Amino acid sequence: MRNIFMVLLILLICNSCKKTPEEADQLTVMYLAPQKIEYATGFTIQNKNSYKEIKVTTPWPDAKQELIYILHPKGTPRPFKAPNTIFIEVPVERVVVTSTTDIPMLEYMDLEEKLVGFPHTDYISSEKTRALVDNGKIKELGTEYNLNTEVVLELAPGLIIGFSSSGDTKAYDLIEKTGISVVMNGSWVEKHPLGRAEWIKFVAAFFGKEAVAEDIFQNIKKEYHKAVTLAQNTTATPTVLSGIMFKDVWHVPGGDSFVAAFLKDANTNYLWADTKKTGSMALSFESVLEKAKNADLWIGSGNTRSLEELKEKNHRYALFDAFKNNNVYSSTLKMGPKGGLIYYELGPMRPDLILKDIIKIAHPELLKDYEPYFFEKLN
User: Fold this and answer.
1) Strand partners, 71
2) What is the pTM of this model?
3) Which of 333, 328, 325 minimizes the C-alpha distance to 361?
């Protein structure tokens, strides 16, 4: 009787594991919801009958080849075979991310407890994820360019979300050979602030959180455009200097950079707005002084917390009118317990807050009840 009972139990379990076509369709609907991309230019998402195709076209600047990821529901076979294609079963239950900018995306979708490892955990500033690190639930993985492969294998994540500034993916290539899927997040290459934020949809697709991500993004977009409209209704356009010296070179944001987009949308006159550069431009101190000596505002002065500290780094900063008139602003208002700036972690996810901060600086008569979130005035 005992043997008969065991056979019946096994049959019952096996039958419960089988999925009818209707159940398989429900899985597809649940984990492969349609997604529309509005601002991001670095990736595309297409829904097929039983899988989702994500193409990352710009994982890093000047990428020569797009990256293809095929997402299919857990328990279903790969929909086809193809070279140079990564197949990923969704939803993912355990994930490793390698950039702090991914942390807010996970938190906004209530996914932070699925994070099991991170390189340089000291860089994590968010309270919720910081608590998980301190409690030992998120393991230290070394550096993003030299991940501790042994620890990664022990954690056995279903997915690693990586990034590369140059196209060097050696650290990830080694891990991929073990069977762990790696995808590349290229949000930092986006030109438009909302394009960077829209990469939450990329992350959401691996967890079946498409609808949640859409709601989050639409709210951010709505707040951003409300702020743009408000700023455009004022006729004042203060001139703006940005960036700081590193050794003997002053790095200013290019005219096609996301920083320049913020300054334009805040209705300011950014002095390098007409340059066709998406990243930063390396200039001499003399050329910056000649162009921006009389600038009304200096927004983005590195990680300094006071004018005295700024002057100690380079006494020539005091030659600018913005310095003399105490109109220098730095994104150091909020810092994590380990010294990380919340601006670098949360900012890409919340461009609406960055824009409102800049509007508050440039047009103090607007947003009267708004308290700055990232930027503080140096004294």
Assistant:
1) 52, 88
2) 0.90
3) 328
